[in-house]
Amino acid sequence: MNRKKALVVFSGGQDSTTCMFHAMAHYDEVELVTFNYGQRHSKEIEVAKSIAEEQGLKHHILDMSLLGQLSPNALTAHDMEITKEADEEMPNTFVPARNMLFLSFATALGYQIGAGTVITGVCETDYSGYPDCRDIFVKSMNVTANLAMDSNFVIETPLMWLDKKETWAMADDYGKLEYVREKTLTCYEGVIGDGCGECPACRLRNEGLNAYLNERD
Predict the structure, then answer these.
(1) Using an 8 Å Cβ cutoff, are 42 and 50 in contact?
(2) What is the mean pLDDT of residues 119-129?
(3) Is the overall model pTM greater than 0.85, yes or no?
(4) Are 202 and 186 in contact (CB under 8 A)?
(5) Which residues are annotated as a binding site for ATP?
(6) Annotated binding site for Zn(2+), which residues?
(7) Interatomic CA distance for residues 174 and 21, integer angstroms
(8) Average pLDDT, the chain
(9) Count of C-beta atoms within a 10 Å radius of residue 78
(10) Could you tell me what this protein does (predicted)?
(11) Per residue in 90-99, pLDDT tens?
(12) Which parts are annotated binding residues?
């Protein structure tokens, strides 16, 4: 495996785009992989394609539409309202096993292209309680994938212990804050950039941005 080559799990959102710039700063070769799982907005795939093209990076798009068949959730059932009821353990945007499947396919692709590192933007600090964003899960997945392929690659999580303010700071450190702010799609309603401002993803993103800008200025 080539320790100088990284494969980034890439959605075209704030976190994965920040991870992309992190990879470009630290690795000689970078490729991207995006999963088409019937997500709420096909625009997410278009944004990922556009960013990959602008950055001159090889971009793999894998069909994961089977995720929508496993359980109803607000990210794949487009007519379902995004909610989190007070008595719910998990928001209805949770897609069971999504990151397990994504990392399984990403590591398999990494094996094929000779990438010694697979980078994913999951984090345990600012998240919606998804169990497959936890550090312990990623570490266990790293061990399992290496055993399954008799390999020795690393799943890297640059954002694992960062909150959204600190993630914006990282983008700024790479000189890419405005790029990430203007070009990425995080919004559940499909609005590029600062988003709709109302959905949970937008509120988390914008609160972090405002906190960082206030601290920086």
Answers:
(1) no
(2) 82
(3) yes
(4) yes
(5) 10-20
(6) 187, 196, 199, 202
(7) 7
(8) 87
(9) 11
(10) Catalyzes the ATP-dependent conversion of 7-carboxy-7-deazaguanine (CDG) to 7-cyano-7-deazaguanine (preQ(0)).
(11) 554 556 678 8
(12) 10-20, 187, 196, 199, 202
